[in-house]
UniProtKB/TrEMBL annotation:
This is GAF domain-containing protein. It comes from Blastococcus aurantiacus. One of its GO terms (molecular function) is RNA binding. Residues 173-234 form the ANTAR domain. The keyword Cell wall biogenesis/degradation does not apply.
């Protein structure tokens, strides 16, 4: 992707884009809105009439968080369907990937043929930093044949940094919430099991260990979770389901 001269008229467009990103308040925007802004500004400042998207790879499944146009979204989906392509490679390996010319690419020929037919001449994907087992990439689909020079690559690295912050924060937040919910569930389970043990100890004069073993035995015999056995017993006094 050839890039305009740093001192040329497009330099002001580039600076304006980064000024706009710098004014974004991450606390006042959703993940999707911030990433969409990044992809739209990526399309504005890079050459080749590009369309941009952000791919997230989590648990072996890829998805597109945001895109600046249908072409990027559709070509992302084609790579997911094929299980191969620059965006998946960048997200999985942490290294930039590209197709210099979709009409002659040999690394991903099936995807390249689809991209060329759709009007994409070249593609460049830059990885996002890995957070909480979530990786990703900022993808740029150029509609005019270009060659990525160092300035274009540097701009893409800077734009990727803006995309990485909200994506990382969102998944870090989701992971924290999941851990908190798991901890609360564990505490709730322990509380009701202890309550059931106490009832058994009082009713049948059992030791704490014997009461727990009784709950465990019913759980195994009825193929019921220990917590569910305890909940039913506390509520009804019955060990076994009807």
């Amino acid at each position: 992707m050839t890039s305009p001269d740093a001192d040329g008229p497009d330099a002001a467009v580039v600076q304006s884009a980064f000024d706009e990103l710098g004014r974004l308040n991450f606390a006042e925007h959703s993940l999707e809105s911030i990433v969409r802004t990044v992809t739209e500004l990526t399309a504005r400042v890079l050459p080749g009439e590009p369309i941009a998207s952000v791919t997230i790879l989590r648990g072996g499944r890829a998805s597109t968080v945001a895109s600046s146009g249908d072409l990027a979204f559709e070509l992302d989906q084609e790579q997911y369907r094929l299980g191969a392509g620059p965006c998946l490679s960048a997200a999985a390996t942490g290294r930039p990937s590209e197709i210099a010319d979709t009409r002659s690419d040999q690394q991903w020929p099936d995807f390249a043929a689809v991209a060329a037919e759709a009007g994409c001449d070249s593609m460049l994907s830059h990885p996002l930093p890995v957070r909480e087992q979530v990786s990703g990439a900022l993808n740029v689909y150029a509609r005019q044949l270009t060659t990525a020079d160092q300035r274009t690559r540097d701009l893409l690295v800077r734009l990727t940094a803006y995309a990485a912050v909200p994506v990382s924060n969102m998944y870090l937040y989701e992971a924290a919430v999941a851990r908190a919910e798991h901890l609360q569930s564990a505490l709730d389970s322990r509380a009701v099991i202890d309550q059931a043990k106490g009832i058994l100890m009082e009713r049948f004069r059992l030791t704490p260990d014997a009461a727990f073993q009784a709950l465990t035995r019913v759980s195994m015999e009825t193929n019921t979770k220990l917590r569910d056995v305890a909940v039913r017993f506390v509520a009804s006094g019955e060990f076994r389901p009807d």
